[in-house]
Amino acid sequence: MRSAHVETTINGQPAEFLCEPRQSLLEVLRDVLRLTGTKEGCNDGNCGACTVEMDGRIVPACLVLGVEAEGAEILTIEGVAQGSALHEVQRAFLEGAALQCGVCTPGFIVAAKALLDRNPDPSEDEIRLWLANNLCRCTGYDKIVRSVQAAARIQQQESAS
Amino acid sequence: MHWIDYARPRTLDECLRAFAEHGSDARALAGGTDLLVQMRTGRRTNGVVVDVKAVPELNELRYDRDAGLTLGAAVPCYRIYGSETVCRLYPGLIDTVSMIGGTQIQGRASVGGNLCNAAPSADAVPALIALRAACRIASAAGEREVPVEQFCTGPGRSVLGASEVLVSLRLPPPPEGSGACYLRFIPRNEMDIAVAGAGVAVTVANGRFADGRVALASVAPTPLFVKAAGAALRGEPVGRAALARAAAAAKAAARPISDMRGTAEYRRNLCEVLTRRALERAVERAGVSLA
Fold this sequence. Notes:
heterodimer, A: about 160 residues, alpha+beta, 5-stranded mixed sheet, 5 helices, B: about 290 residues, 5-stranded antiparallel sheet, 4-stranded antiparallel sheet, 14 strands
């Protein structure tokens, strides 16, 4: 049984790992690299809990093979905060009580950050459509949507000041 | 998942050699949004996964005024709706790539993969049929071109031979006075499989339909090209009467089954409504007012 050697960039840092070709990027992140912030939900691309950014696009890490990370730039939830300074989306989620059990939260935050990176002032409809690939069984979504709107306002205020 | 070997060819030649060597044991990996799920659940057992995303020909997205659009089989949805040219010239294609899955799936899933997966419900395929797409298929032995309406042969099955690869789709340049649209019905707002879908394209000249094409999703073992619906449009004055006859032809051609997503009767009725509404939108996109 041959394992593959993969060199990649994770959260801005060079990283390398060995994995079997059948292992998903999600398995590699959690089981090999111990980056357990990325969660496993459905493992078939429906729930968005394992959302990571790969070369600037959000993707379900369960539907990417670990070997596909070769040469790629990956951003996981662990790379969203700058040291101890939380990202605006993380702050807004905390202040807006946008999480209960928390399993969907890393995926929502990575996805919401990617939206605000592209569109600093999304409408409610744009937020709901962008996040349609992320499921939450606790909050009913309204607090999540309002927190993304709040994060957008914080970012706008901070970039204006 | 069962053990797999992984190959990432950098050239089309290298890719075709891998398929020549491994035959039906090889399966192309583009976005993996269908393939990896099918392998995990044991529905596909291929031993060799050939990642085709590094092959330039499968990554091409290029418009030429004479040749039309070359859409590499592995180009993910987001690159297609990220192209201003494609958005302007092929709104019927944009309808589909912006509704397949959600944002994350669109970051991976390709139109070529949607076609090769050959699901009866594939959203991209009716629009491709309406837009007269042709499939460029290659193997180590040579190349052939197949009209997209002949590509799927049954649920999960296509004309692709064991050592063949879908390289790209070619969509002719949109004729003057043309418009296209894809609509589907799902009980949710997004992230669902079509209960039924209709992809249409029309060309209008001097107040009459010079051309019309209609194809349906989820109402037959393969995406269904409804020639009779196009025939109901061609030569007719642009108006609601012609649209109603084309929609009735679509309903008559549908051969749906009843399942958890909808009954056969419901789906037949959907075919009529979706075809009519998609045609209304296509006529509007062709720059003609129906009022």
